[in-house]
Amino acid sequence: MTLGRRSRSRIVIDIKIPDEALQDWQEALETLAQAFDGSLFLLALTASDGLTPQLSLCDDNQVHRQSVAQLCAQGLSLFRDYIEHPHHPREPVDVGGIILHPLFWPSQALYGALCLVPNEQANHNKRLNTQVKLTCQAMQYALINLYQTHRQQLIEIAPQAAPNVDLQLFIDSLQEHVWMKDVAGRYVLINHSVEIAWGRSKEQLLNRTDDEIFSPELAEEFVQGDYESIVRGVQVTAAECEAKDIDQSNSWLETTKVPVVSPDGTLEGVIGISRNITSHKAAQEQLELAANIFENSVEGVVITDASGNIIEVHGAFTEITGYSRDEVLGENPRILNSGRHDKAFFERLWRSLLTNGKWHGEIWNRRKSGAIYPEQLTISSMYGDDHQVRYFVAVFADISAQKQSEKELARLVYHDPLTKLPNRMMLSANLEQELRHAAREETELALIFIDVDLFKHINDSYGHVTGDAILVEVARRLGQKLGEEATLARLGSDEFIAVLPHVESDDSVSLMVSRLREAFDAPFLLDDEGSVRLTASMGVAIYPGDGESGDTLLRNADTAMHRAKANGRNNYAFYTQSLTLASVEHLKLQSALHDAINKDAFYLVYQPKLALGTGQCVGFEALLRWEDPQLGTISPAIFIPVAENIGLINEIGLWVLKQAATQGAQWLAEGKRFGRISVNVAGPQLQQKQFCAQVKRVLDEAGLPPEYLELEVTESCMMSDPLAVIEVLKQLGELGVELSVDDFGTGYSSLNYLKRLPIHKLKIDQSFIRDIPRDGNNTAIAKAVIALGHALNLCIIAEGVETPEQAAFLEAAGCDQAQGYLYSKPRMVEELAEFLG
After folding, report:
1. DSSP assigned state of 164
2. Distance separating alpha carbons of residues 399 and 320, to the nearest angstrom
3. Cis peptide, bond prior to residue 523, ω within 30 of zero
4. Which of 656, 543, 546 minimizes the C-alpha distance to 603?
5. In terms of domains, do 697 and 799 share one?
6. Range list of β-strands (E), 582-656
7. C-alpha angle 802/804/807, rounded to 5°?
8. Vertex 501, ends 498 and 504: CA angle to 5°?
9. Is residue 7, in this structure, part of any structural domain at all?
10. Domain PAC spans what residues (predicted)?
11. Are residues 464 and 515 in the same domain?
12. Which of 247, 275, 495, 629 has an alpha carbon within 20 to 30 A of 86's alpha carbon?
């Protein structure tokens, strides 16, 4: 157990307290405690280095408010007082009821303090103070003996003394200022540099104190430095100041002081040395300046060794990355890797760094939080004297805000500030890209030029603010009608451009024009709660027929738009005149279809189905007809595809089903036999999840049993999604509805799916019936279909039978049923009496 401590700056560095002395101290403390019969609660000896108490005696039977750690804090406070106050009394002091007594080495260096905590009943009398003082004197006497023994050991092992050298000659040879003071503070030794720098001779300096030579303030500063060195027992740097050096130049001087101790351990004085540190100070200031710049920089700084391990970070590193300095020291910068850059990127970076000594560019890194951010990065190689890389210094700045600004600038450059739509510049770039795609994929592209009619009147009547608000609303409505695949841009003023890629047909373009015109159906509200109605003229140009470049298409679409205006506005035109005429008719057809159901323009006719051989009527097929007041009679082959394109086929198909079911229920009520009424079902109807439920509801509302209904589904419709169709047809079959495949032979059926379909009939398409029995191919196909159907236990019906020869062939081939003009054209209900039983 030792009370001595090791310190790099103490003179008594190697002096240790032997165990026997420690035992003596322990006994002395116990004797002190016993002498006062328990009035001392705690005794502790603590070293001046601030370590935990080395030796303590405590009455464990009592609880005291002070802990050992608090006692140490009081002791350290005493040490600071002695060091900071040269005239501090070296007597025991009472600090908050705790008695502290300093212990000194013979050199007057402070060793530690004896700390005593009397209990609450103890009397702080003179006898107690005297006993404590005597105990401390005994302990200090032991320190003197230890020191002298230590010095004697050093003398015994010291090498042969060097030849005597004149001390004055030695110190005069030094440029540093060297002097010595005795214990009274008088200068007893100075070198020639001191005389020159201080501007005084030896006679004016020797045997004089600082008070006699310098001003009171400066003398007090010098005395304080002497005292600190003595009390600490170490070499101290007393001051750094600007002063005259031996060349009388203004320089920075650093003064170091160290106590001089005799072999017996007593203090002899203080030696001081002042050296010129101007260059060192300048370098230090540069380093501090650089450090301050680094630390206060808005950029982050990372320094790595040659192996790439982080050895220091500065500036905004933590603020930018989220990592603290301690978290990254020793780590590789790859902890910041975002994963956005491939191996080739980093290979180029290192090649530039090792070849040119520098790399500069943009890189994406990852913060501690996981967020990825862009940074501007410069990496520089730092070389040693051997021209080998010693360090890498990376300086980086977070450029997220800059990137956002660039993005915003690009948005302003390429977008219309009012509607936020792409402007003419961005439209040109996007259009050229779409044209390249269309050329590569060999598809068509349509460009629609939209001009709001008479918009100048809006600005003139309501002002530009209102006009701008209406234009924003026009852009919103047009965008909703176009959908996501198309592009909408604003050229300026009241002109808009719609780009439709992947055009499948002219009808699809006409349909989109119709939808765009719907954007102007509703009135536009004004701020004063009024409203206005607007129309638009549109021109259409199609790639590649109307032009192969963006400029050509824009010019031709503009030409078509002006032709639409010339035709009365609120109109549209294709650049190609024939397409314009066809599209106009197409739009008329679409408009009429929307109103056909409400205006009772649809009606049903029925064509009988007969059993071959007996000629008995076994059912009727309900066929839809349309008579429009303006357009006249329109063939189902024309309006059914249009209805599918514009999404009306489900509504029309449901109407047909209701009418046919109602007619069948009426016949039953009249006691007439008619077999089954068959109704054609379109593909979109089967794709509805609620279709089976719709059929059941229609039958229930009409009062028609399911066994009187037959649904005809085209072969191509079933093959588009056979698994889904199978499920729907199974549900319909479970209702009791009979199912047949219409137009069989035209849809490339898969026999694998055909055998799994819950169907009852195959209907041979009329294209295979038309030329039999003269056409050998059609004859063979008809026979094959009949044989296939019978193999699958299906009833076979032929449609389009018009001649007795066709009927005779089909009957001979085994066909079960037939329908066609040979038996009857489709008729109105009142014309079917001869076929109803």
Report:
1. P
2. 10
3. no
4. 656
5. yes
6. 602-611, 617-628, 632-634
7. 80
8. 115
9. no
10. 237-289, 359-411
11. yes
12. 275
